[in-house]
Amino acid sequence: MTSVAVLCGGVGAARLLAGLVRTVPPAGVTAVVNTGDDMELHGLAISPDLDTVVYTVAGAVDPQRGWGLRDETWNAMAALERYGGATWFSLGDRDLATHLYRTQRMREGAPLSTVTGEIARAWGLELTVLPVTDDRVRTMLTIAPEAGEEGGREIGFQDYFVARRHAVPVSRVRFAGADEARPAPGVLEALTGADAVIIAPSNPIVSIGPLLAVPGVREAVAGRRESVVAISPLVGGRALKGPADRLMRELGHEDSVVGVARLYAPLAGTLVIDRADAELADEVRAAGLRCVVTDTIMRGPAEAAALCGVALGL
Ligand code: FO1
Question: 50, 81, 199, 221: which sits with the fewest CB atoms below 10 Å from its CB?
Answer without folding.
Answer: 81
